[in-house]
Amino acid sequence: MAEGPSSTRLTGALKRGSVKKNVAAIHVSGKLTLLQRKLSNVLLLNAYDTLTTRSQHAIDARTLCQMIGYNSNDMETLKTALRGLAETVAEWNMLDAAGREEWGVSSLLSYAKLKDGVCEYGYSAALAEKLHDPKVFALINLDIQRRFTSGHALALYENCFRFVRTGSTGWWSLELFRRLMGVDDSDYYKSFKHLNAKIIKPAVAEVNRTSDILVTPETRKQGRQVAEIRFRIARNPQLSILNIDDGGAVRAGPVYARLRALGVGDRLARQWIAEHGEAAVAAKIAYVDGRDGVRSPVGYLTAALQEGKTPVEEPVSAPEPGSRAEQLRRVQEIIARRSPTQRDADRRLFMSQLDSAEARTDFERHGWMSPLNAKAILAFWQELQPDAFG
């Protein structure tokens, strides 16, 4: 009998800040939306350590939303994304240990359900075995994943990152590339001109701006037509992937101990401390401790850290009425009440009003908590909903 879920805390593989993504799964996930792709990666990370020993896995639904950068009470959108994963077919064509070809097909999730604030889900035994195979995988960093705003860009990143050690993807036929990007059933993208303008160039630009790698496309023609494409890959020195040492210094500190007491996994605790600094994490812990009625402190802390660092030179206290911090808190409340469609429209409208590339980049990384755009953000929302600020 399969062991059922026993806890909604961040445990097991969630101690890691990255997830092994099997090549076969990457190759068939091109048609997933950005939200579904992020969701698929977090669910796999959560289940990874027990993929082949359990048929059921579970994670707190709010924590799940926060880990994919979707801070919302809109469970209908989460249900739609889960339904999409259950309805999406994964197909693999791999060689086994004896060199024999194996073809297989399975839904990405065998089932998913939401009950009492918990997301429970499972994989078919055959797909779980493939997803757990350590021989061929891409390492997906979840902090980097959250920065992507385009599904095509995240698909390109996933399919390029596994070749970072060799420096090149090797040549792909355009048919295969369209499949990896999830546009193989579109006549429009059979034209390389359209494919290049709408898929390749925007995806390359976002990968290079957002992630820890730099990709450069190269094409090869057959006659007059472009027939193949490959991507040169180099590390992005400005956004190198977070490497966490396994020394004992961080574990010996009081901030690490407090995180572990809250139920944060070992690796995730060390990642937060390395990324934000002990003082900032301690300030956020104090902020969460001061909130009454928090059902999921780990989820709340995840959201608090994603909003940005608390200045260590200032005491952590409730924002003064009328202060910028209080106004930004109200902005967050307004956004939380809006539908996903409205939130997307809000972001697009605000982005269209930003004049500099630096401002746009900061907003892409930090959203409505962008420090560089704080004044413009308040002006935008005061004009949109002036009654919300008193």
From TrEMBL:
Keyword Transmembrane: no
Domain annotation Initiator Rep protein WH1: ranges: 19-160
GO MF, one annotated term: DNA-directed DNA polymerase activity
Pfam families: Rep3_C, Rep3_N
Keyword set, alphabetical order: Plasmid
InterPro entries associated with the record: Initiator_Rep_WH1, WH-like_DNA-bd_sf, WH_DNA-bd_sf
BP GO annotations: DNA replication initiation
Family stated for the protein in its record: Belongs to the initiator RepB protein family.
Name of the molecule in the record: Replication initiation protein RepB
Organism: Dinoroseobacter shibae (strain DSM 16493 / NCIMB 14021 / DFL 12)
